[in-house]
Each structure stands twice: as C-alpha cells, then as structure tokens.
Specification:
- The chain is mostly helical.
- The chain has 15 helices and no strands.
- The longest helix is centred in the N-terminal third of the chain and has 32 residues.
C-alpha cells in the first residue's frame, strides 16, 4: 500500500536518532581516548548517511519548488558557515604574520571550484566537514531536476527504480572502500563521501522508504536486532580494517534504524528524549556547521589550548558549546523574524 501525499507526519524517532547522530559526528571529530573513542567512532559512522536518508524521507513527494527553496536555504547555511571559517582562516593568517589579502586571494583559482563541484570541499581551515552541506545542496538540485522531469512528462516518479539504482551505487561504494581495505589499499575519502556515491543514493533510499512505508510497517522484522547486529559488525570491521568511512555494518545499522523509525514512529518522552528530538529537528545543521569552528578556536587560542589535554571532557565541551551556539542562533533568528513582522 502506498499513500501518495505531499506531506508526512513528523517522525519523533527519526528526530531522536538525528539528535543522537549529531553528537556522534562530534565524537568522530573529537575522539574520546583509547578504544572507547575508536568504538564510538565506528558506531557513529551511521550519522551522516542517516541525515541523507531522513532528508530523502521527509522530501518524499516534494514539489520542485519546495526542493528549490530547500536547496537555497541549505546553500545560505553553507555560505554562512564558510564565511565563519574564512574569518577563522584570516585570524590564523594574521597570527602567522601573513598578508590576509594574499591568503584569501590564493583561493580564487579554478582548482578550488572544481574541488567544490566534484567533492564539495571548502578549502578554509577546519572546514573540511562542510562537504556534507555542499553535497546536500547538490542532492537537492539533482532531486529537483528529477522531479521536474517527471512532472513535465506527466509520469509517476519511479521510486522503485531509483532505489534499485541507489543500492547498486552503494554496493560499488562498499567494494571501492571496504573492498580496497581488505586488500590492504586505501581510497581517498573524498571519492567515497560526496553527493554522487553517498548523498544521492541514501537520499533516494530515504524517499523510497517513505513511498513504501506502509509495506515496511507491516514487515515482521526485528529491526532492533539489525541495529545491534550492524553495530557489532561495525566494531569488528573497525578493529580489522581501521578507519573506513562506511562499513557493511553501518549499512545494516541504517536499515534497522530506518525500519524501526517507520515501524515505531513515536517515542516515550522525557527530558532527555525531548531535548534530543528538538536537536534532531531544529539544531542539527547549525551544530554540524559550528562544531569544527569550536574545535578550531580551542586548538588555536592560547587561552583554551589546555582543553586539548583533557581528552575525556573535550568532546563534551565541544558538544555543549556547539549546542549553546545553535540555541543562540535559533533564538536570534526568531527575534529577527518577530521584529520584521512588527515593522
């Protein structure tokens, strides 16, 4: 059974898992010490693919105009974040007694434009994680083109066909990444983590899951066992293969997470789950944008560099500061809208 509506009810469990995922991203970039940090990193690898999956889910049946607005909004977030990292880079250039104009001018080359289109990377200090934002913009634009084509030709959007294509691409992704690791070789992460081999396939599968959500709800699959099994496989793969971006175990975890989200949409609310759901719904992109900026300031400012030696509390400090900045940004935006309406 397929329900072809233009909107979906808000999924509390997806918001919860997204809230957990954003702090997993921080734990990947600021490791806890020892095996704890490595294990947390292996388990948290589900985070970015899950963001793509849920974006695809909530954009199921979205009209081209809505996709265009979301692409523009994400691009604005990318531009704002890039501006912050540019300012950080200028500050670091001044500290090195370099010319800021010369440093900034060095980025006005075709090479960096090509890198952005191909890998969505931003060349400023501490901004490498912003590839996700660039990839999200690219995915929205590609999905806009696909939906526009379907609408123009008067055909039903081929969700099943896209899901099959996405599965093939992700299989190639695994062969290229994990397969190379099994052979003792390495692959540039930028080849694996981009809109084409990562973002778009997961986005397409998320939209397909929304398309087939009533069929998925009726499946008697123990989704929590898939989550636990995938987590276990991820830990083993991490110990055997090292730091790969996406493991087979991660894929299994993602299947279990999406299945559980669709099967059990609501969660028991308490202060912790309510906060994580709020983060997953409203703060994810802002926390993602600023957390590396917080890390950069801690590492570069002499008054804060002592925190680097506090490896057990550093990830927590980064998470708290990033969350406070995101909360401040949300409050400032709400106040700006309020004043704008009052004029």
């Amino acid at each position: 059974m397929n329900e072809k509506t233009h909107t979906l009810k808000r999924n509390q469990r997806m918001d919860l898992y997204r809230g957990i995922a954003i702090y997993g991203v921080i734990a990947i970039h600021v490791l806890f010490p020892g095996f704890v940090g490595e294990w947390v990193r292996a388990l948290a690898r589900y985070a970015v693919p899950f963001f793509f999956l849920t974006a695809g889910y909530f954009n199921f049946n979205a009209r081209p105009a809505a996709l265009g607005r979301r692409a523009l909004r994400t691009f604005k977030q990318l531009a704002l974040g890039s501006g912050l990292y540019l300012l950080l880079g200028c500050f670091l250039a001044i500290r090195r007694e370099e010319s800021v104009f010369a440093w900034v001018g060095g980025f006005f080359r075709f090479h960096y434009l090509k890198e952005f289109i191909q890998y969505h990377t931003i060349p400023f200090p501490y901004a490498w994680q912003m590839w996700f934002m660039g990839a999200m913009v690219m995915v929205y634009l590609l999905w806009w083109a696909f939906t526009t084509l379907a609408q123009t030709t008067g055909r039903e959007f081929p969700y099943d066909a896209f899901a099959i294509g996405a599965a093939v691409v992700l299989l190639f992704h695994l062969i290229l990444g994990e397969g190379a690791a099994l052979l003792g070789k390495t692959v540039d992460n930028r080849i694996l983590r981009n809109a084409f081999l990562d973002g778009l396939p997961f986005f397409a599968l998320g939209s397909w899951a929304a398309w087939r959500r009533f069929d998925i709800k009726q499946m008697s699959i123990p989704w929590h066992y898939l989550i636990l099994g995938g987590a276990g496989v991820s830990l083993v793969e991490s110990m055997l293969l090292g730091r790969q971006e996406i493991y087979l175990g991660t894929m299994v975890m993602l299947v279990g997470l999406m299945g559980r989200c669709i099967r059990y949409r609501r969660v028991s609310e308490n202060k912790v789950t309510a906060f994580l759901m709020y983060c997953g719904r409203d703060l994810t992109l802002t926390i993602f944008t600023v957390h590396m900026l917080v890390i950069g300031l801690i590492r570069e400012l002499p008054a804060l560099d002592w925190l680097e030696s506090k490896t057990w509390i550093l990830p927590i400090v980064v998470a708290v500061l990033s969350t406070l900045i995101a909360l401040g940004a949300v409050a400032a935006k709400a106040e700006w809208k309020k004043r704008r309406k009052g004029k």
